[in-house]
Amino acid sequence: MEKMWAGRTAGNTSAMADDFNSSIHIDSCMYREDIRGSMAHSAMLAEVGILTGDEADAIIAALEEILGDIESGALEINMNAEDIHMFVESVLTERIGDLGKKLHTARSRNDQVAVDMRLYMRGKCEEIKALLIDLIDAIVSVAAEHKYDIMPGYTHLQRAQPIVFAHHLLAYAEMFTRDLSRLLDAKARMNYSPLGACALAGTTYPISREMTAKALGFSGFCQNSIDAVSDRDFCAELLSVFSIIMMHLSRFSEEVILWSSWEFSYVELDDAYTTGSSIMPQKKNSDMAELVRGKCGRVYGDLMGTLTMLKGLPLAYNKDMQEDKESLFDATETVERCLEIFAPMIRTMKVRSENMYRAAQKGFINATDLADYLTKKGMPFRSAYKVTGAIVSECIGKGIVLDDMSLEDYRSHSELFENDLYEEISLKSCVAKRISEGATGYRSVEKQINSFTEYLKEQKGN
Question: Can you give the pTM of this predicted structure?
Answer without folding.
Answer: 0.92
